[in-house]
Amino acid sequence: MGEIERASDRGDDPDADLVRRIGQGDGQAAGTLVARKLPRLKALGARLLGDPQEAEDIAQEVFLRVWRHAAGWTPGAARFDTWMHRVALNLCYDRLRRRREAPLPEGWDAPDDRAGPDAGIETAGEQDRIAAALAALPDRQREAIVLTYYQELRNAEAAALMGIHVEALESLLSRGRRALRARLTEAGPNGDRR
After folding, report:
1. How many CB atoms lie within 10 A of CB 113?
2. Which of 144, 152, 157, 187 meets the CB 3.0–4.6 Å disulfide criterion with 172?
3. Calpha distance 122→138 (Å, rounded)
4. Torsion angle defined by CA atoms of residues 95, 98, 99 and 100, in that order, rounded to the nearest 10 degrees
């Protein structure tokens, strides 16, 4: 299993001072951390869960845990950002497990498909095709792609969060990219099957 990257291996943790201040009850530091981390945590949750509202719930729970545990944080063991991502991933996994265990109720509505932060880059149709192709991937491949491409984590960080070696992550990425390419090519530019 991969070890979570030590902050000392990368230099100082950029969030260490904020976390220390949050541990002392500084609400302004908490607001700064939320402003800095909220968009990425919501994007992670939305990509893994496919539901922006659930992603907001996940992010809120992460920040509640930050507030509760900041006073006990030990700098140098791991980057604080890595710990936050791990908490968010675990909360997403819990929700995904619950979904598999409970059937959807009758009359269930699909998640909100409004454009995300990358809307300026891709058209709505392309976003839908990519989201559908991403959702069709096996969980671990989807997780590897979301962490490296959407969360912009380095391979070592993503592997540590997933609890695997970098080589295993790279294998998941390779298989995931091939599957995405095949699915997107198969669907054609308008989403029509060729």
Report:
1. 12
2. 144
3. 24
4. 130
> Where is average pLDDT lowest: 22-31, 108-117, 119-128, 181-190?
108-117
- State how far Cα 169 lies from the chain centre: 15
Return the structure tokens found at 162: 């997933």
Numbered ranges of CATH 1.10.10.10 in the chain: 122-194
pLDDT for res 53: 93
125 pLDDT above the threshold of 80: no
**What CATH number does the domain located at 14-104 have?**
1.10.1740.10
Check if the beta carbon of residue 49 is closer than 8 Å to that of residue 139.
no
Dist CA 85 CA 37 (whole Å):
10
